[in-house]
Amino acid sequence: MRGKGLMSAARAGAMLLxxxxxxxxxxxxGVQQTFLGGxxxxxxxxxxxxxxxxxxxxxxxxxxxGREVLALGGTAADAAVAxxxxxxxxxxxxxxxxxxxxxLAYDPRRSGAGGGRPEAIMFLPIAPSAPGPETDRPASVPMxxxxxxxxxxxxxxxxxxxxxxxxxxxxRLGTPVSRALADDIALVAGPxxxxxxxxxxxxxxxxxxAAGANLAQPDLxxxxxxxxxxxxxxxYQGSLADRFVQGARIxxxxxxxxxxxxxxxxxxxxxxxxxxxxQVAFLPPPADGGLAAAAAFRVLRANPADIADAxxxxxxxxxxxxxxxQTAEAILAHPVTGGAPLxxxxxxxxxVTLDRNGQAVACVxxxxxxxxxxxxxxxxxIVLAASPTAVPPPLLAAALAWNDNIQAFRAExxxxxxxxAALAVADGMANALRSRSPMPRPVPDPGRANAIACWRYLPDxxxxxxxxxxxxxxxxxxxxx
Length: 481
Prior knowledge:
Blueprint: H1 9-18, H2 27-36, E1 53-57, H3 60-71, H4 76-90, H5 92-95, E2 100-106, E3 119-123, H6 144-155, H7 160-173, E4 175-176, H8 179-187, H9 189-193, H10 196-202, E5 214-215, H11 218-230, H12 234-237, H13 239-250, H14 257-262, E6 266-268, E7 271-275, E8 278-282, H15 288-302, H16 307-323, H17 328-333, E9 349-355, E10 360-366, E11 397-403, E12 408-416, H18 421-434, E13 448-458, E14 465-469, E15 476-480
């Protein structure tokens, strides 16, 4: 599982080709040039030697972007932000700027109130306050930019604009379509092509982009450039906000500038429960996939083979939360199965990062539907996510294990896969804690998981760390030492 040294361009290209993602030609070199602005020169940031950490994502270029940040001395949060921004370009079907998500962050060196304990960064999709009469496809308020900015402000060290620049360059110059994105385009090519803006990007000349085709997004590049130069706040209360709202109205999204101004991410405490000598944190509601994963994890800790019961309890837990009237604590205290089933749930994507000092981040993002509303806010390149009032929200699930006594990281798992996301996280975390492998076996279908684990903890024993992408996905797990 471990990466060995700086991966060569040829090896990077070969791995991506094997994943059905990109042509095997100077892939890593391209990522390096994206971050450094050109060929290696004397003024570039020094690269770390030895163990640098790991980055795992459902889209290969995003994983490589995160790894490059780690190699240049960035924290796990810096790497997660680079992955999130890159995904807005390379996997906008699930992680565009118009969507939202949630992350768990842990830093063993963090001081002050709550220091050395995981924290949840919540930036879930938000419904607009009062869609106008022209609204025929209600859109979510975009939360990704503000959410990633909060994560980086609390846990990052590199300038935020340096983490946006690589995504901007990919959007401007174009990037090969990954297998993950090509599959999503193929699934919704008909509805997606109904929007002129989306058709021009994802199905030029009426032909849906296939894996390896060039994906250029000049309008999105301009938007990312504005975020980089004027700051994230411009999307929420500046000239970019005005432009975005106008474009969203033309696309039938029904957003207002006041919706953007009031939409704030927050940092809060996760759900936690003991697991032997360790503690495990789960995303808290309203990310109810975390609540469902916590309920399933407790079942699997008692009986690792009881997958069916864990799945039933996970789905019933999420359904009870969505029915309202009960706290998360009450639901976990009295688990049940059965009840009203959950509706069909939308897609999501996940990624995890770890740096050499034991800081770890596990994130999930969603557009509340593949490609959200299927429309792009005119002139911005931002795919509009679906409003949570129009589409049931996904099960956003992630978990992170740490040891409170020695202040050290143990494992992290983030999941996707519609109704299987919560069980994927519960099973993935239970497996990681029982073994010396980040993913000793695949999680149950239809769930998918990305994982990093250090069986003798980090920062103490980097040689015991491993990282894994779900073998059924088109993603990539990358590290270096």
